[in-house]
Amino acid sequence: MNIGFIGLGNMGLPMAINLQKAGYQVAGFDLVQSQLDAFAKAGGKTVANANDAAKNVDVLISMLPASQHVEGLYLGDSGLLANTNPQTILVDCSTISPKVAQAVASAAQAKGFEMVDAPVSGGTAGAQAGTLTFMVGGQQSAVERIRPLLEKMGKNIFHAGANGAGQTVKVCNNMLLGIQMLGTCEALRLGIANGMDPKILSDIMSKSSGRNWALELYNPCPGVMDNVPSSKDYAGGFGVDLMLKDMGLATENAEALEASVPLGKLAQQLYEAHSKAGHGQLDFSSVFNLK
Q1: Domain ranges for the chain
Q2: What is the pLDDT of residue 123?
Q3: Is 265 helix (H, G, I), strand (E, B) or coil?
Q4: What is the pairing mode between strands 120-121 and 59-62?
Q5: Which of 31, 121, 249, 252 is in the most buried spot, having the most CB atoms within 10 Å?
Q6: Which pLDDT score, from 0 to 100, does residue 102 have?
Q7: CATH class for domain 2-162?
Q8: Catalytic annotation on 265?
Q9: Is domain 168-289 annotated with CATH 3.30.70.1290?
Q10: Which of 155, 170, 207, 265 is catalytic?
Q11: CA torsion sign, 49 to 55 to 57 to 60?
Q12: With helix as H, strand as E and coil as C, how does 173-216 read?
């Protein structure tokens, strides 16, 4: 099977490499040359532009930063929907607005394409290990056709419902994650202020009712856990600006539906303050240092 992969960033690159390792023929494209070079070094084929990535492939996967990038890639006279074989299954793994996901899928279906939204959870470590969780929205037939590919990149594949449902789940999940990280940071800082060793504190809380993903697998306090961004000066991982974008998607969605998310709105404000302080490119766990 031939696969096109557009977006070889911190998440997309290891995902594409895992497909390559699994024996698929993968043609990758990214706007950043260093990412193309890294994919080529791993044995992948690189192409000059997005349209080339979508030529003569059975499945086209995109992993882009935001809604406007997905709209720009697929829509319009120069977009993929106007220049790609409708037999190609389209899989968007970006985290974007559910409304935009539905609109792009509707445009794709009008041109004869099968398209699913399949955002992921698990971070860069999960992308590298092939243990991501996929939250998929789309028709059951399309989901089952791409399931073998997704299983090469993740260990949990959930069909959430119709187009846009995958993005809805992802927005809810990341809003919770953003809130959870802030709470974890505050608890750790409070313990440290009282003279506690953060490793001991983390061990105890991870076996108590305050246990959570950030505390156990992505600890934000430097020195507590190896191979996480907090022990690498918060380099790599999932950026503050990306979390801020996702918090914005959640609060925007909530406002449109008149759903109450007071903690989500407060968390959005805190990530925005951290970003404006010059930390937007650091991993989101760097809110540990938020004053």
Answers
A1: 2-162, 168-289
A2: 84
A3: helix
A4: unpaired
A5: 249
A6: 97
A7: alpha beta
A8: no
A9: no
A10: 170
A11: positive
A12: HHHHHHHHHHHHHHHHHHHHHCCCCHHHHHHHHCCCCCCCHHHH
